[in-house]
Amino acid sequence: MDYLQQSLGFKIKKVARYISLYGLSRTYMKVLGQLHTRRQYNALPKNNCNNKRGERIGVIGCGNFAFTTIGY
């Protein structure tokens, strides 16, 4: 189901339910996760990671669940 195509009432009820289950900060990450899956790039953004040891993390198949879990 595409949550971004649903009615405003549905979205408000969904956010209220998520807040009661997960709290405000995790709900915010859930909302960002929905928007993240819609993002498209003409060119990939520059990686501005300040990692001194050169370590990187890659997530394969990063859907909404993985994005919101790691993003939090």
Structural features, described:
The chain is an all-alpha fold and 72 residues long. Helices cover 50% and strands 0% of the residues. Helix 2 crosses helix 3. The relative contact order is 0.15.
By DSSP (H or I, 4+ residues per run), the number of helices equals 3
Radius of gyration, CA atoms, in whole angstroms: 15 Å
Number of strands: 0
Low-confidence parts lasting 5 or more residues at pLDDT below 50?
A: none
Secondary-structure element pattern, one letter each = HHH
| SS-derived structural category | mainly alpha
Distance between the termini: 23 Å
Any idea what the shape is?
A: globular
Fraction of residues in β-strands: under 5%
Residues in helices, as a percent range: 40-55%
Mean pLDDT, rounded to whole units?
79
| Main sheet: strands, sense, barrel | none
Q: Keywords for this structure?
A:
single chain; 72 residues; mainly alpha; 3 helices; 50% helix
Please specify the SSE layout and strand pairing.
Elements: H1 8-22, H2 24-36, H3 64-71
Summary?
The chain contains three helices and no strands. With 72 residues, it is mostly helical.
